[in-house]
């Protein structure tokens, strides 16, 4: 048992002998620097590694920061052909008067002051039609020929009274009594007034009195256009017997129309006559102005009608169409403002516009959007007079994006 314990201890002493002997004789001093050098190297390696990480991270951070700003500050250059094709418009930024707007649905209507109805004044039969639906007619143009028994009687009286008046006038006041002279003159005037009231025109009357064979013209008369415009209805057929007041033609000048918008009484109170208005349907946008604010409230819808007058170039709008209407309300004073489409989001989400550095060359400029007023945005961060892209902004933005694509992968 003792031998088993003694042998391992003796072996351990022999193996440790040189070191123990060295320490025992003072040679351990040579080993100590080796231990310190190893620890120092380990410590220095750790410091270098840590320092390297800090320098690398610091350099990347600053490099990305400065490099990113430099990339975002780029510009884009366009050719005149590109600008024309994209419809790019550059406008100096100006202080302008802004208005709040009131939005409402509307319906296109005929301008009643530019419309007329063609109707007979006596019972008559349709003899001939000279215009059709959708025809564009001129003022005084022949529309329809009618025949009437009442007109035939009136025309006959006119022919007789005209002959009598001519004979009495030829004899003169010295031969004819004053009473007979006056009666002949009055009868002639009354007969002409009657045929005019029945629907004949003065040129027609003159032609009837000049004809050598009045029997062929007796009973017939024509109706003419009272204005220039488009025939919008012609609800009759040939040979039809027409009663007085029956509308034969509706004619309207569609170069100008009305739009009737329906507003709440509160919104109607915020606008005034002659206020500007915008009418939209699809891609069509037209400007007009308020002509009239109705005083009565509709009993069913509890809304107040507002009539807006608009021009209709190209005949793009027609009565019966439903449109969207925005009407300028109270003034909000002057401010720097741009159309909605002129202000876009940058890659980092900020609002920006494109400023013209020189013709055909644009750079993005960050701005602050204060608020929207109707179809415009009030902005800050840019000086008045700066030339800014107001139309075609998205094209400029896409061209800038093409030039800066994969900017971080050099």
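^ structure tokens above, recovered residues below v
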């Amino acid at each position: 048992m003792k031998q088993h314990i003694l042998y391992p201890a003796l072996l351990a002493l022999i193996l440790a002998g040189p070191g123990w002997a060295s320490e025992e004789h003072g040679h351990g001093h040579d080993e100590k620097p080796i231990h310190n050098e190893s620890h120092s190297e380990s410590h220095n390696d750790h410091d270098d590694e840590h320092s390297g990480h800090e320098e690398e991270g610091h350099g990347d951070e600053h490099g990305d920061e400065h490099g990113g700003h430099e990339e975002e500050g780029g510009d884009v250059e366009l050719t005149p052909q590109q600008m024309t094709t994209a419809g790019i418009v550059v406008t100096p930024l100006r202080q302008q008067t802004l208005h709040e707007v009131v939005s409402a649905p509307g319906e296109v209507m005929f301008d009643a002051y530019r419309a007329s109805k063609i109707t007979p004044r006596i019972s008559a039969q349709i003899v001939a039609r000279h215009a059709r639906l959708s025809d564009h007619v001129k003022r005084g143009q022949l529309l329809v020929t009618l025949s009437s028994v009442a007109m035939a009687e009136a025309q006959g009286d006119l022919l007789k009274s005209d002959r009598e008046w001519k004979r009495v006038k030829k004899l003169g006041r010295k031969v004819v009594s004053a009473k007979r002279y006056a009666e002949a003159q009055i009868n002639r005037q009354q007969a002409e007034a009657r045929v005019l009231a029945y629907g004949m025109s003065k040129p027609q009357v003159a032609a009837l009195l000049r004809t050598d064979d009045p029997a062929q013209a007796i009973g017939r008369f024509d109706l003419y256009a009272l204005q220039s415009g488009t025939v919008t209805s012609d609800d009759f057929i040939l040979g039809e017997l027409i009663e007085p007041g029956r509308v034969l033609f509706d004619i309207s000048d569609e170069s100008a129309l009305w739009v009737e918008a329906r507003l709440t009484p509160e919104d109607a109170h915020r606008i005034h006559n002659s206020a500007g208005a915008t009418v939209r349907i699809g891609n069509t946008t037209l400007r007009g102005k308020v002509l009239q604010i109705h005083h009565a409230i509709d009993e069913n819808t509890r809304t107040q009608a507002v009539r807006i007058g608009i021009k209709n170039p190209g005949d793009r709008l027609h009565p019966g169409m439903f449109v969207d209407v925005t009407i300028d309300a109270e003034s909000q004073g002057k401010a720097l403002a741009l159309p909605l489409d002129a202000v876009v989001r940058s890659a980092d989400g900020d609002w920006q516009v494109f400023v013209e550095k020189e013709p055909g060359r644009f750079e993005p400029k960050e701005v602050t959007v204060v608020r929207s007023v109707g179809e415009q945005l009030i902005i800050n961060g840019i000086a008045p007079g700066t030339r800014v892209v107001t139309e075609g902004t998205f094209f400029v933005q896409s061209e800038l994006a093409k030039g800066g694509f994969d900017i971080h992968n050099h």
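The chain has four domains: 74-97+333-403, 100-111+253-331, 115-141+225-252, 149-218.
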